[in-house]
Design a protein that fits this description.
This is FAD-dependent oxidoreductase. This protein is of the alpha/beta class. It has nine helices and 24 strands.
């Protein structure tokens, strides 16, 4: 009977975990291990692009790629993990329950937007967290053209001034004018609890964000929080009310709730503490990759961020090391010392930095060209060719 290596999740971490494992099995000529990937759909959803229009097209089918590298795909949503019996419970697309057993498990179930109990948030706010919610926002924006002109119709409020909030906000002026007309006076407002504009992004990148915001007419309200959302806009904690028919929530992300199924240490974002080989601390048979893993990228105290940049590399290492664990060969210690930031800033351009201290390297058109390359080429899966795909899964290939 074949040993079972189970991957949960078809995002960046899950896809590259499966490819990383397939690569090592191929190198050793082993056919006694079966790789199974469990996910709601056999597609890589290009989540970093969900702030853009035409979001319904931002996925890459994976069936042919899985067939090429010998990964079995099971369509379903994982619901439970039993570490004692090494079983994962799931429901298929019809709602019927099922289970899968494993000898080694790679948890790569991603993250989700945090939704605190803000009154009216669930009923009235939009987000760009998933294709479905982003498509709902897109339909809403298009439908604004059917409403009579008003301040509320022409105003978008983005709650959160982090990476996702900034990319969403800077894209909005062009999207609104394309829908409502170039002559319309549109307004985009970012609400952020930090005391300065884009404070969490660091001093190296902030001047570009401020310049782009000024050029695009984006307003920032800092040192402020959203107290409530209603059909007519948002109310801030200090009592101010902003009229808007479009409120977009981008504040905070948490690891998949599946991490809570394991008796293991987690950080404040719900991520599992892993060792240098990406094995979950205290659990011999479970590895973690992508947004569910709290993984040290170097020996300087830096940890992987919730980003495709880190998830791709984490997946390569986790897949390699989970397979190595089954084969009894040496693992490869995860290291990803190079860190870059490429932030889209709408019609103004983009900004590109290197290092955890975000040293400015490219701005405006040059950075925009790089961002476009990243978003449309680099983060997409490899071709459905066995040799090409397995070569791309080498954990020692630098991501950035």
């Amino acid at each position: 009977m074949k040993q079972q290596l189970l991957v949960i999740g078809a995002g960046f971490g899950g896809l590259w975990s499966a490819l990383g494992a397939a690569r090592l099995l191929d190198i050793h000529g082993r056919q006694d291990v079966e790789i199974t990937l469990l996910a709601p759909q056999a597609e890589l959803r290009i989540r970093p692009r969900f702030y853009e229009p035409d979001v319904h097209s931002m996925f890459a089918p994976l069936d042919a790629l899985f067939d090429a590298v010998g990964v079995r795909f099971v369509k379903g949503t994982a619901e439970s993990i039993d570490g004692l019996t090494r079983r994962v419970g799931y429901r298929d697309e019809t709602g019927r329950p099922g289970h899968l057993t494993y000898d080694r498990l790679i948890l790569a179930s991603g993250s989700q937007l945090a939704r605190p109990p803000v009154p009216g948030l669930k009923e009235h706010a939009f987000d760009v967290d998933q294709i479905e919610s982003s498509a709902r926002l897109e339909r809403h924006l298009i439908a604004l053209a059917n409403q009579p002109a008003s301040v509320a119709r022409n105003t978008v409020v983005v709650a959160g001034g982090g990476f996702t909030g900034i990319e969403t906000a800077t894209e909005m002026p062009a999207r609104l004018r394309a829908i409502l007309g170039e002559d319309q006076n549109v307004r985009v407002i970012v609400i952020d609890r930090s005391k300065d504009i884009a404070a969490t992004m660091g001093d190296g990148i902030r001047p570009s964000i401020i310049e782009a915001s000024d050029a695009l007419g984006i307003e920032w309200i800092v040192d402020a929080t959203v107290a409530a959302v209603d059909a007519k806009g948002v109310t801030l904690a200090d009592g101010r009310h902003i009229e808007s028919h479009t409120v977009i929530w981008t504040v905070g992300f948490r690891a998949s709730p599946l991490t809570e199924q394991l008796e293991a240490k987690r950080d404040g974002q719900g991520r599992l503490h892993v060792d240098g080989n990406l094995k979950v601390e205290g659990i011999d048979h479970v590895f973690a990759a992508g947004d569910v893993a709290r993984a040290a990228t170097d020996d300087l105290g830096n940890y992987a961020a919730m980003s495709c940049q880190h998830a791709i590399s984490l997946g390569r290492y986790a897949g390699n090391n989970a397979a190595a664990d089954l084969l009894g060969v040496a693992p490869i210690t995860y290291r990803q010392p190079k860190y870059v930031t490429c932030l889209d800033l709408g019609a103004w351009g983009a900004v590109y930095t290197e290092g955890w201290d975000r040293q400015l390297k490219l701005v405006k058109a040059e950075a925009k060209e790089l961002k476009t390359q990243i978003n449309t080429v680099w983060i997409y899966p490899p071709a459905a060719d066995r040799r090409t795909a397995l070569a791309a899964a080498d954990p020692l290939i630098p991501v950035a």
